[in-house]
Amino acid sequence: MTGELIIDGFMTGAQVIKLKNVSKIYQVGDQPVYALANITEHIKPGEYVAIMGPSGSGKSTLLNVLGCLLRPTEGSYQLNGQEINTLNDSELSKLRQSVIGFIFQSFHLIPRLTAAGNVELPMIFAGIAPQVRQQRVTQALEAVGLTARSHHRPDQLSVGQRQRVVIARATVMNPRLILADEPTGNLDSESGKQILGLLDQLYALGHTLIIVTHDINVAHRAERVLVISDGHIVQRTSSCNLTPESL
Amino acid sequence: MSLRDCVDFAFNALKGQPIRVSLCVTGIAIGIMAIVVLTALGEGARRYVVNQFMSIGSNLLLVVPGKTETTGAIPGFAGAPHDLTIMDSQAIRRNIRSIQRLAPISMGTETVRYGERRRQVPIVGTTADFLEIRHLRMARGQFLPRGDPQRGAPLVVLGHRVAQELFPDTSPLGQLIRVGNWRMRVIGILAPRGTQLSMDMDDLVLVPVATGMQLLNRHSLYRILLGVRNVSDLETTCGRIVALLTERHGEDDTTCITQGSVVGTFSSILNALTVSLAAIGFISLTVAGIGIMNVMFVAVADRTEEIGLLKALGARSRQILLLFLIEAVILSLAGGMIGLTLGWTIVQGLTTLYPAIPASTPLWASVSAVLVSFAVGVVFGLLPAHRAGRLDPVHALERHAS
Predict the structure, then answer these.
(1) How many independent structural domains does chain A possess?
(2) Min distance B311 CA to chain A CA atoms (Å)
(3) What is the mean pLDDT of each run of 10 residues along chain A (247 residues)?
(4) Which of A8, A97, A165, B78 has its CB surrounded by the most CB atoms within 10 Å?
């Protein structure tokens, strides 16, 4: 990997994420179904947190709530000091734009756009000037080692390269919080290692990193691990203490 | 997000679906082309008719027997028009100084014969002024002589085609022909003129008005054609003529029509025709608009993942709506421009092939075609764009994953 991931304006000490009694309830017929139930959790700036749990346990729902893609049905969620429930859709979009970077398992790259075009997307909607965009795209692709592939479309890239484009896109707006949903789930082990290396770099640079994973080896790279089951956080542990038996 | 970014993004998205886009653009182009061509034909017909009238001068008046207004009189007791006579036309000539030329007209159809050749033709009884009022020219011989219009004479002037048909090998001048049962001498042949105000000036026979009335057994003139010295005197002259004839007939039973009012009537009828033709074009444009809506709905469905992603990356609902709306507008405007170009080309071709019909797309039709194509994009793109803007990002991303 060449280049360096850059983060600025990093706020130390205060909590980036404060969840208090957060529930996400879906109505199935007459029955309320708790996707998340009474979650209370604080995550500090620069923390690396892994979320684990069986399928359907609420990991992705929690990640969507944290990413402001879903609003909690109950409880309070403060991101970067702002209460999410008081923000309208437009303000939430702006918050996602400036504070959060998403890394998806299935990449979600726009097939007709080049790697550079995909990385540029968040800046277009933020109204950043084209010259600045160009500069930042170059930096972001350089940081993930894809300078030579900037004009390739996703179908001309390997899966590992695609995920690197996604990381470049997630970091190009220099967000404080990076949310990754199974970032290595679709990758071979070699590409997976490269991606985890990049995530480690982001962590080292001070980004707050929350990663959903089934893989205990991936979780071991985090500082803390939250284990979720049936919408509840059933275990909070340091990754050092994490064993297959403890899950 | 700047407008340029929106347009670039929309263009990029459209490039990804060339078949759908070209079908959609074709639909709009056909709609716009239909408007351009149909209104050009309507306008061409209007101009043709107006030109026909204007070619015989703008200083013309027409006096016809009968009133065009509704009267309260009981039919049969009053309101039945008196005959319009040659004496009436002479009275008009004597009393109204603003009149430059006057041609009383009687009309009917009769068989003309020369030897074994015969032909059924319109017979027009008139006077010497008819030649100038209708802007006709003589090919050979002379026109009807000036003199007392009450006195008939067995003289005829032949239309160009009638002369050719009756006298294929010999000169008609000085020859005797039969018009009905009358023997008459040919004194002149009109130069070819073609159709003038729906009358084929090449296929008629002209006789002195008194002779025409006897020949055709008419008691009333068909009409009186008048040329006024100054165009500004048209309306007042008309009023004086009606007043004079009312005095002579004892009641108001004639109608005086100015050339302008006839042209105006035709013009408004043909304008209505043009608008009706445009409406037909707009219907096809509406159908094409529904095509755009369909394409945009399919695009929203196909690009659900993309919409979810854009929202996750911070795009606002309004920005997404704008993106899809701009795509629809690009489609419709592209169709509009192509349709306009095709339409103009076809109109150009038509005017080259049929120069007699001065087909030309009115400016309002061209401008409104472009505006309507823009509006079609906005109106028919709004609903799919709104749907795109309202998509829930989690569901949109999950739908792809599932």
Answers:
(1) 1
(2) 7
(3) 38 67 89 90 91 89 91 91 89 90 89 94 92 94 91 93 92 91 84 87 90 89 91 85 69
(4) A165
